[in-house]
Amino acid sequence: MTSYKSKAKSIISKKLKEHREASGISQINLSIRIHKSSEYISRIERGVMLPGVEVLYEIADALNIDPCCLISNK
């Protein structure tokens, strides 16, 4: 059975990449906007790490989306 953490990583990585690309923002530009490294963004998008709630809000703000868009599987 898939753990909740693995499921969350999968959903967030997919949604982050989807919304970032739809916004026309590179990983580097997103990383600058949220004051993190581009490697940090890459690790989230590859499903290697799970960001904290505060970072999800920062990412959502930088992408001009509701934070729920990053965790919803719809």
User: Overall mean pLDDT score?
Assistant: 95
Order of helices and strands: HHHH
User: What's the end-to-end separation, in Å?
Assistant: 21 Å
| Main beta sheet | none
Percentage of residues in DSSP E strands? under 5%
Oligomer kind: single chain
Question: What's the β-strand tally?
Answer: 0
User: Using only CA atoms, what is the Rg?
Assistant: 11 Å
Number of alpha- plus pi-helical segments: 4
Pick out the low-confidence regions. none
User: What's the shape?
Assistant: globular
Helix % is 55-70%
Class computed from helices, strands and strand pairing: mainly alpha
Model description:
The protein has 74 residues and is mainly α. The protein has four helices and no strands. It is globular, with a radius of gyration of 11 Å. The two termini are 21 Å apart. The relative contact order is 0.20. The model has no long low-confidence stretch (mean pLDDT 95).
Summarize the structure.
This protein is mostly helical. It contains 4 helices and no strands.
Could you give the topology of this structure?
Layout (H helix, E strand, L loop, with lengths): L3 H19 L4 H8 L3 H8 L7 H11 L11
Helix pairs in contact: 2-3
Features:
74 residues
